[in-house]
Here is the input.
Amino acid sequence: MNADCNNIKARVLTAALPYIQKYAGKTVVVKYGGNAMVHADLKKAVMSDIILLSLVGIHVVLVHGGGPEISGMLKKLDIPSRFVDGLRYTDEETAQVVQMVLAGKTNKDLVSLIGQLGGKAIGLCGIDGGMIKAKKIQGDYGFVGEITQINIEPIIQSIEGGYIPVIATVGTDCKGQTYNINADTAAAEIAAALKAESIITLTDIRGLLRDISDDNSLIPVVKIDELEKLMNDGIISGGMIPKVKSLEKSVLSGVEKAVMIDGRIEHSILIEMFSDEGIGTMFIK
Here is the structure.
């Protein structure tokens, strides 16, 4: 039995070798959110995947949200949560909570977990080193920011120092006003600025579905010029809009591979990266 198990392990590692060679020395941006952040076992699996990728020479940049934790803290403080076009409406009070939760507890919990699992991570937010410069987004969203500039120097220095950068998505303008930045949007802009090989977005569904109530309606590949029709048809709506827009941005900015995968599946990142079939939805030109 042990010999059989060892043979299986050897075959798995051998099969993964070409993919490891393909990505070695290249940058992969992982946007992390949803159920994969809430459930302890899934969180541990995601962090283990990221540590493994780092150990085999892949430069992983982890960009995280924290919607459930923000909502939970707002509820404790008796501050109502409101969403407009899939974005959290952010008044001044909410902006302070977003910064406290994302750049504080959520970010440092992830850094701590990576350390517990044997990895090396450093926690950053968009304010650090002027990484994410932003301005107020047009429309009635409050202090939701539109990114105007990405400074990749803090990210590059972290990678060169042997650390996995873990980035919370808050930014500032030239006057020091803090903005809540959608994590999907920030991940796309960071991937483009880094000229990343790949961006992987973890979601709470299999990928982009033609029918949100039917897991079997997965669209495995989407061309960018099909997105407008999918939005007009209501297939892409609500919180899915910023996710899809971010992946579109990545593809148009030259990121080689942009995918949306099911973060509810343990080790989904490894399955996506180290197999021909992959999982989820791939966005292409």
The longest strand covers residues 27-32.
